[in-house]
Amino acid sequence: MGDVRETEFSVSVVNLRKQYGELTALNGVTFNVPRGSIFGLLGPNGAGKTTTIKILTGLTKPTAGSAVILGHDIVRDTIQAKKRIGVVPESSNIYEEMTAEQNLIFAAELYGVPRAERMSRTRELLETFGLAERGKDMVAGFSRGMKRRLTIACGIIHRPEVLFLDEPTTGLDVQSALVLRDQVRKLNREGTTVLLTTHYLEEADQLCDIVAMINKGKIVALDSPEKLKADVIGSNIIEVAFSKPVDADELCSSCGLIEVHRLGDKLRLTAADEVDVVAELADYARSRGLRITSISTLKPSLEDAFLRITGLNPEEAVRDKEPARMRRQDG
Amino acid sequence: MTIAEELSKALHLARKDMRVYYFKAPNFTYGLLMPVALYLAFSVSGSLSPATLISGLVSLVILFGTMSIEAVSVVLEKQTGTFERLLAAPVSLLGIVLGKALAGFAIGPLTAIIVLIPVSIFSGTSVQSPLAIFVAICVSSFTFASMGIFVSCFARWTPEAQMYSNFFRFPMAFLSGTFIPVESMPWALQMFSRVLPLTYSIDAVREGLNNSFLTGSYLLDLFVLILFSIAFMLASVRVLEKQMS
Hints:
The structure holds two protein chains of two kinds. By secondary structure, chain A is of the alpha/beta class. Chain A folds into two domains: about 220 residues, Rossmann fold (3-Layer(aba) Sandwich); about 100 residues, Alpha-Beta Plaits, CATH 3.30.70.980. Chain A has 13 helices and 14 strands. In chain A, helix 3 crosses helix 4. The N and C termini of chain A lie far apart (about 55 Å). The C terminus of chain A is likely disordered. Chain B is mostly helical. Chain B has one domain. In chain B, about 50% of the residues are buried. At the A-B interface, helix 2 and helix 3 of A face helix 1 and helix 4 of B.
């Protein structure tokens, strides 16, 4: 047995490193997840989010450093730690040749749920996740959203104290994503600590008490979403669209802007002074025979904080997150 | 975690595997049809004694059947991501390997008996010790299931696992006394046959067919098969551990 000291933190990660041959996936990651919190791990693809989750759930071993879950060292006391956590991976990993009910019962058996409780918990979860009508149907015929809900139900059937969710809503329709977020909040209210990774920064903003931003295997920011957003204040963000395409570099120099990024048919501008720049933009448009079709000033979002902290520009971030969407825009 | 808990989880895992993977097509083609076809092709000459024919065919069916199940169950789980679910659960790697081996093990006696009963009736062979044969079938099934897991640990796709399995199955089928008695093979091949588990499986089944009492050779065969099982299981755990790190 490892060192079982229950602390105020459900998860404690100290100087975690992971090396895959020459590639450094994690380079000294350190953070604590307070009990009862929803903790978000954010970062672009390849930043180290999934590697961190894999280490914390005992799916791979760290090259160096330590990770303690509810007082159990994940390397030395793996089974005890695994008993108290639930894992929902990025892609649904349920047995398509079994019914929803059979999948849940098998998960309960694997996690040692007493025989007398297996069926009642299965029914309860099928009901909670809106699958009660389909409990006896083979999973092969389920939609992606239904499979995702069932995967999450399988991950919590043993009532874990800490739940790891890797990209829980990726690829889901809006309604299924809303249902899942509600379920995550409900689980958290009932006392489950949640550690999630997500590409959707708005989702992290809505759900998380604390977020850690990870880039190139290192934690680059760790705070509450509101504090991270507050750090971006001081620069003003304006989104503007013109009646015809404009040269971003020329606009930047003509209007004295700090940054200009193209977002689809809009431009996102960062300026030192919001009032001055609106006047400058109006002059710019008039002098070139353009019309401003829309303009809005924005409060800094978590995405702005993310871009500022990671140093990625929006195009890179979008490309990193959704290559297909970017290709469509390019075309 | 107690041994009883581990065993209980391994049994749940085995039951799930039986439900999910037993009726996959490769299990019938590779597991039953191929060994029977192979055997019929070599036995039409009529030069094999009934005891050689039955022991060879029974062991061959177990070998192909159990290894096919493992090639499907281990690799399909890796492909669909469900293997990760098992790895994330509070079960040791040995528990997972044991559960997988038990699923493969369970199909061995079933297919062996499907073949054994009609063949012994048609050939007019009386079975001297049904219990000894049954035990030999069970131990052989476990050995070949463990071997199937070990081989499947290296594969990423089911056809790849079948290819690796055939790399072991076919040489064993020809060099373990299935079609040609080991004693009639050249000395070097006789020595080589001694490191092949199929040799001991065939010998144990033949001992049960011919003798109504337990012989030293029969007990030695079972002992060696058990050693092979342990070695394959521990090696599988080691490979999985290495893959996880």
